[in-house]
């Protein structure tokens, strides 16, 4: 595995703001689990009225005995359809996190030799992709919610795939640490405490807040 990159300079993150790695990762994930493949043939419903959020608990409670898994759990409303937004305050928000990520893509696509090289790299390593995806599932929901709350492109939620393979304990030869790979100085600049007993660069909540603050400042 390649050494994880680090949060070392504004120039790096200005490049990452347009990084196509998120799209590449989702393309590679499509070869691992069909749930991760983009819904290429979504047909909007005939009605333009907004659909009410699905109450999963009520659906389960009202399902007839022996009816099996309710349809709502196997075929939830498609969050890619604008007429049917996800209510992030209900359990429907958990039903297809990858669809939420795809829906929030806002960076322009790039097509060049470097992009194709990374596509090939990830596509030929399905086991590595699966391990990263399984590890990232512990943290991705929180990151997506924070990114959406700030109105940022959801590609940013996938940067830890590139930075650290979603490993909060990752270290680099440049002394970068954590899921977002902050070097010591940059971490201190964004209130990530580091001492003998504590290193907030390894704290998922604190480092995510700091990383998004950093990206917002650079983008501004």
Rg, Cα atoms, Å: 19 Å
Order of H and E elements: HHHHHHHHHHH
Largest pleated sheet: none
Portion of residues within helices: 40-55%
Number of strands: 0
**Apparent shape:** globular
**Cα end-to-end separation:** 33 Å
Uncertain residue ranges? 1-5, 9-54, 63-82
Number of helices: 11
Q: Provide mean pLDDT, rounded.
A: 74
Helix and strand content put the structural class at: mainly alpha
Our estimate of the beta-strand percent is: under 5%
Write the layout of secondary structure elements.
Blueprint: H1 10-16, H2 21-29, H3 56-62, H4 71-74, H5 97-103, H6 113-123, H7 126-136, H8 140-149, H9 159-164, H10 184-189, H11 204-219
Helix pairs in contact: 2-6, 8-11
Task: Explain the overall architecture.
- By secondary structure, this protein is an all-alpha fold.
- The chain is 43% helix and 0% strand.
- The chain has helices spanning 10-16, 21-29, 56-62, 71-74, 97-103, 113-123, 126-136, 140-149, 159-164, 184-189, 204-219.
- Helix 2 (21-29) packs parallel to helix 6 (113-123) and helix 8 runs parallel beside helix 11.
- The chain starts with 9 loop residues before the first helix and ends with a helix.
How would you briefly describe this protein structure?
The protein has 220 residues and is an all-alpha fold.
Essential attributes:
mainly alpha, disordered N terminus, 11 helices, 220 residues, single chain, globular
